[in-house]
Amino acid sequence: MIESLIALDRSFFLFLNSFHFSFLDPVMKILSGQAIWIPFIGFFFYYSYKKNGKKFTLLFGLFLVLAIIACDVTSSYILKNIVKRLRPCRVDELRPLIYSFGQKCGGKFGFVSSHAANSVALILVSIRCLKFEKRIVYLFWLIPFLVGVSRIYLGVHYPGDILGGTIIGLFWGYCFSEMFRSTKVQA
Fold it and tell me: pTM for this one?
């Protein structure tokens, strides 16, 4: 059972990774980078401060940081070291099949994707705590989706790694947004 899921994940990865266009290479690197989050985090804090004030925003920031720390610890320090699944770019027989344009491979293990976990938690905590209109919420969910796609495009994660990271992000994002919402500081 597990072997057939791993084989399916590998096949799906190779299929998805085969779709590449040179004009997307720099876009995918940007989507996988750290700097992409600065404008979004800045926007969420600005929106929070303008709509809810300083005390609310500081508390929102605390719970957001705690959610991301929980995701990062769970994904990077616990699950990756327990599961020890090599990233696709670290598997010798896959390397020649992976689209490569000089991008970095990252750490040794890939399950689960920390990028997926952190991006999902960031969006979930932000939309649940800041209460955006529904139509803009859909746009926010596009961000973690594109981050996940970029990780497969770059050859550093299997789709299962992204799915696992998404589940971790949903779990911790929900937990910390619920804790925030249960505090007395509300808009």
Answer: 0.92
